[in-house]
Amino acid sequence: MKIKAYGKVNISLDVVGKREDGYHLLSMIMQNIDLYDEIEVEKQKYGITLECNKSYVPVDNRNLAYKAAEIFKERYDIVDGVKINIEKNIPVSAGLAGGSTDAAAVLKVMNELFNVNATEAELMELGLRLGADIPYCIHGGTALCEGIGEIITPIKSFKDKIIVLVKPAFGVSTKEVYKNFNLEKVKQHPKTAEIINAIENDNLNFVASNMKNLLENVTLRKIKEEMNACGAINSMMSGSGPTVFAFFDDMLKAQKCFEKMKKKYSDVFITRTI
After folding, report:
1. Comparing C-alpha atoms, which of 130, 137, 62, 124 is closest to residue 96?
2. Which residues have a Cβ under 8 Å from the Cβ of 83 and sit 6 or more positions away?
3. Active site residues
4. Residue 236's pLDDT is what?
């Protein structure tokens, strides 16, 4: 059984507090994009086998998709094994939920493959044990994600908006980004409610002009400036980075930006919100 595992961008990322266990409390507007990994899951007699088209992706229990199969088997007493194949297109350690969306896809496919009939809420609860982005990846679409990411409120779809993505040649550790974040130094928070209102009114200019990510890395300023100079409405880092994405209101401008950035960076994509 094969499924598409879609990546995401954060249209807005606000940090609103911190729990006693050290996890940051967030208020994020998440949006699926038409950049996806393909996940195939088949039954086998026993154990978990994982294969991937990218040699640098771990194929043991360091991989979230592998872990997802483990906890699903454990939770629902599945005796049979599974063979997982990942056709990886989403860059890793990029702020696009590549690993999380693969794990979410494995949970969804195994739910069908073994006729477990777990609800979406049950799968989201299971996924949260592995990562804060996984519940959103199970739900998908356009959504406000709060708490550590597990409280999800659907927003009217913000589909078919043109996006160019640029991932610089370094990855980031989400854990390190949050460890170095100081909430007390924040002077201005994102206008989350106003952005949601603009999304619901399909006002791309307002959304793009007002999007904000409190985790944004200053080293990415040059990429943002280059993309904006290419005619983007605005650009911003997604998640904990380092991928920068830009909204365009014109495919020709987006194509020119894509071609220019491709000369400097290997991971450049032109896609749409879905």
Report:
1. 137
2. 41, 42, 43, 44, 48, 49, 50, 51
3. 8, 133
4. 97
